[in-house]
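Quick note —
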Amino acid sequence: MRRALILTAAALSLTACSASHAALPDGAIAPDFTAQASLAGKAFSFHLADALKRGPVVLYFYPAAFTSGCTIEAHDFAEATDQFRALGATVIGVSADNIGKLNRFSASECRNKFAVASASAKLISNYKVKFPLLSRSNRTSYVIAPDGKILFVYSALNPAGHVEKTMAAVKAWRVAHPAA
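Predicted structure written out below.
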C-alpha cells in the first residue's frame, strides 16, 4: 500500500513537470557513459561515444522493464528500429533494472531489435531524469547528434509520442546532414 502511494505521488509529480524542468536542454553536451547492456538476451558493454561514431543515438530512459507503459514503449521502438537504422541512428533504452532482467526484456519486449542498458544512479542523475521519490529514471527520450550535442528531448510519463517525436528529430537531422 505504501509503495502504491509513493508511486502515485511520483507519477503526479512527474506529470506536473515539463521537459524543460526535468531533463538536459537541447544543445547541451550529452554526458558520455559506458553501461552494461543487452541485445537479444546477450549482455555487452555499451559506450555512447562509440555509438555516436556511427550516427545519431536515440537514448530513451524508462522507469522499469516489464511494466505496462515501458512494455508499450519497447514495442513501439522495436517496430520503428528499422526506420531509425535506415536513417543511420542507433536506439538504446535505459533503466535502473539489472542486466539479468534486461536480458529477458531485450529478447521479449524489445523483440531483439535494439539494446537496453542498465543505468547507474550517476547516469540517471547526469541526464537529469530521476523519477521523483524513487531511484529510477522517468520517461525521457533524447536524440543525440554524432558531435555529442542533444538535438531533441521529450519527457512524458505516457509512452505515446516518444517514437514519433524522436523519429521526427532524427529525420530533421538527416535532412540537414545527408552525407553524414
